[in-house]
């Protein structure tokens, strides 16, 4: 007969076996052996990851561990890995750490890709290009994301080219795991290509004549459909700035037997008048106010009018402008403007009256140009309080000259570009025989280059070249001379500080060359800093190079980028630091 101690020990063991195991807390799931993209996809697929931080019964934890292998395997298939080796381990005790170790193995590779288009689209060059760009190709890993993106690109091309009835004839992918191979079979029937038809403009309310808007339509009924033509019409309407909403809708339901689509353009007019007001401050010009009134449309022919007044302590300017839409050659304007400026700084006392007639045009999405005729009358003199020279204090100039200006912008974002290039060039010249006080030819070119280094930083390079050919520089007024120094020039020096001077008075120069290199880095989505170096000179015969260095604060404000720079000139060590404030786009 068993002794009493043995009976009690056996009874205790039986109770322990019958008692439920203690619940455990899932503290961490580690994934090793995969790159960042694959690990992220696996984690998103894991039910284990959803249970992090929770206390789980043993049965639930065991179930999640069993499911983890299948979930990991499925999550790797989009990357072309169908036969990975997966090992799942977990720590003993509480809390629990789970480790999923993966060896991806050999990827599935595309063995053959039969991708075809039947119908009218079989000979369309853009569809041929879309098929040529299809990925993955034979010999490449079968990655689901690339495959789906390529299919979507082909479908977008069908829509962009007017094949609205295009559909799949065959759509199949066969994966042979044992051979690590995938066979792609895709076939479309493009159906007929539709054509663009007549355009109907619907204005609510009506503000412009339809015949004015019809000049923007760059196709005739029956032209093969191309979304680029529709986009060009939309961009032309947007540039006019008459409308707050523009909706262009081809009407497939109303297509004729020849697959010609009528196009309806619904337009909502923007407010007729734009009022603007603002305050300004500059070290040289003092405190000021800016007031403006623009009429988006003066009449049903689309004419525009603008009046703008800038009134500062040491500079007053008034601009009156009238514009008439011009579509005969390229989208643009015939403009006439009258500009008056009265500037009284510590350097000069100048008054200028200028009448400008111009024709501007948008050559394409990146290039615009304007040709103008200028009638200029200007009076200037050196500031009396800065010199006692026995010179006639007043000088007068009258110039009649044409100018040609071109602007090219190819950037990813015009407000804060991270990649691309922008440039402008101005060519102007006058002859004494045509009404100018001096013969001259002048070229002024500027450029900016942007390069993103990582998601939060970029490199900015800027340059400026201005050249004047004349034998009578003394007769050229300040508005036709070049200066250097100040914001967007050599920031270590004050406005117009660099260049020929007389008793510390800026005279203006025949030529100018400046360059700038800037590194900018943002710490978060709104705030950043910059360091920069600027170098250049305004000169008549030989450059006197000046270099400035500085740091800046950057803020992405609701109204656009704000830049605050503090700079110092290296060629004048005892000079004061310069503070510059700039608000607005980089271009």
Q: Explain this structure to me?
A:
With 587 residues, this protein is an alpha+beta fold. 16% of the residues lie in helices and 48% in strands. The chain has 8 helices and 29 strands. It has helices at 4-18, 36-45, 47-50, 58-76, 125-132, 144-160, 210-214, 227-240, and strands spanning 24-32, 55-56, 85-90, 96-103, 109-118, 167-176, 181-189, 195-203, 223-224, 243-250, 260-269, 273-282, 286-295, 304-312, 315-326, 332-344, 348-362, 367-382, 395-411, 419-430, 440-454, 457-470, 501-502, 505-506, 511-522, 527-539, 546-557, 560-569, 578-583. The strands form 5 sheets. The protein has a 16-stranded antiparallel beta sheet, with no helix packed on it. Helix 2 packs across helix 4 and helix 5 packs antiparallel against helix 6 (144-160). Mean pLDDT is 90; it is low at 7-19.
Question: Would you summarize the structure shown here?
Answer:
The protein is α+β, with helices and mostly antiparallel strands and 587 residues long.
If you compute it from the alpha carbons, what radius of gyration comes out, rounded to the nearest whole angstrom?
A: 36 Å
Number of strands: 29
Q: Kindly report the average pLDDT value.
A: 90
Give unreliable regions as ranges: 7-19
The total count of helices amounts to: 8
Largest sheet: 16 strands, antiparallel
Layout of helices and strands:
Elements: H1 4-18, E1 24-32, H2 36-45, H3 47-50, E2 55-56, H4 58-76, E3 85-90, E4 96-103, E5 109-118, H5 125-132, H6 144-160, E6 167-176, E7 181-189, E8 195-203, H7 210-214, E9 223-224, H8 227-240, E10 243-250, E11 260-269, E12 273-282, E13 286-295, E14 304-312, E15 315-326, E16 332-344, E17 348-362, E18 367-382, E19 395-411, E20 419-430, E21 440-454, E22 457-470, E23 501-502, E24 505-506, E25 511-522, E26 527-539, E27 546-557, E28 560-569, E29 578-583
Parallel strand pairs: 1-4, 5-7, 8-11
Antiparallel strand pairs: 1-2, 3-4, 6-7, 8-9, 10-11, 12-13, 13-14, 14-15, 15-16, 16-17, 17-18, 18-19, 19-20, 20-21, 21-22, 22-25, 23-24, 25-26, 26-27, 27-28, 28-29
């Amino acid at each position: 007969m068993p002794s009493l101690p043995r009976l009690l020990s056996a009874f205790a063991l039986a109770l322990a076996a019958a008692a439920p195991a203690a619940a455990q807390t899932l503290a961490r799931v580690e994934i090793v052996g995969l790159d960042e993209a694959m690990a992220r996809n696996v984690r998103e697929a894991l039910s284990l990851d959803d249970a992090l931080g929770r206390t789980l019964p043993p049965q639930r934890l065991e179930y999640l561990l069993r499911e983890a292998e299948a979930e990991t395997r499925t999550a790797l298939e989009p990357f072309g890995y169908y036969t990975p080796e997966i090992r799942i381990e977990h720590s003993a005790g509480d809390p629990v750490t789970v480790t999923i170790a993966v060896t991806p193995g050999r990827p599935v590779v595309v063995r053959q890709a039969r991708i075809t288009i039947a119908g009218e689209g079989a000979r369309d060059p853009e569809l041929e290009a879309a098929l040529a760009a299809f990925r993955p190709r034979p010999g490449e890993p079968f990655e689901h994301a690339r495959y789906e993106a390529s299919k979507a690109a082909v479908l977008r091309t069908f829509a962009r080219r007017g094949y609205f009835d295009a559909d799949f004839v065959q759509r199949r992918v066969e994966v042979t795991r044992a051979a690590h191979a995938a066979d792609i079979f895709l076939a479309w029937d493009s159906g007929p290509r539709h054509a663009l038809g007549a355009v109907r403009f619907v204005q609510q309310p009506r503000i412009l004549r339809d015949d004015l808007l019809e000049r923007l339509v760059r196709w005739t009924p029956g032209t093969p459909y191309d979304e680029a033509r529709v986009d060009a019409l939309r961009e032309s309407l947007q540039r006019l700035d008459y409308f707050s909403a523009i909706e262009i809708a081809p009407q497939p339901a109303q297509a004729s037997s020849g697959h010609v689509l009528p196009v309806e353009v619904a337009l909502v007019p923007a407010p007729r008048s734009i009022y603007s007001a603002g305050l300004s401050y500059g070290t040289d010009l003092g405190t000021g106010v800016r007031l403006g009134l623009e009429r988006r449309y003066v009449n049903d022919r689309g004419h525009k009018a603008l009046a703008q007044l800038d009134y500062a302590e040491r500079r007053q300017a008034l601009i009156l402008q009238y514009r008439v839409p011009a579509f005969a050659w390229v989208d643009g304007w015939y403009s006439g403007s009258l500009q008056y400026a009265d500037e009284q700084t510590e350097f000069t006392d100048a008054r200028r009256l200028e009448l400008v007639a111009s024709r501007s045009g948008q050559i394409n999405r990146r290039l615009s140009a304007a040709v103008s005729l200028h009638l200029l009358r200007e009076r200037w003199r050196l500031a009396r309080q800065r010199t006692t020279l026995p010179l006639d204090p007043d000088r007068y100039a009258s110039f009649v000259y044409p100018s040609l200006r071109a602007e090219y912008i190819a950037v990813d974002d015009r407000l804060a570009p991270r990649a691309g290039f922008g440039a402008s060039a101005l060519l102007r010249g006058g002859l004494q025989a045509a009404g100018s006080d001096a013969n001259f030819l002048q070229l002024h070119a500027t450029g900016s280059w942007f390069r993103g280094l990582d998601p939060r930083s970029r490199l900015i390079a800027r340059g400026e070249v201005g050249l004047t050919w004349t034998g009578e520089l003394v007769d050229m007024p300040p508005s036709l001379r070049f200066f250097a120094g100040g914001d967007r020039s050599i920031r270590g020096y004050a406005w117009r500080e660099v260049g020929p001077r007389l008793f510390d008075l800026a005279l203006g120069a025949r030529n100018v060359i400046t360059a700038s290199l800037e590194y900018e880095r943002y710490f978060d989505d709104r705030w950043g800093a910059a360091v920069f170096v600027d170098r250049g000179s305004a000169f008549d015969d030989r450059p006197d190079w000046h270099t400035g260095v500085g740091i800046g604060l950057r803020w992405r404000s609701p109204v656009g980028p704000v830049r605050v720079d503090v700079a110092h000139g290296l060629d004048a060590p005892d000079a004061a630091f310069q503070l510059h404030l700039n608000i607005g786009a980089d271009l």
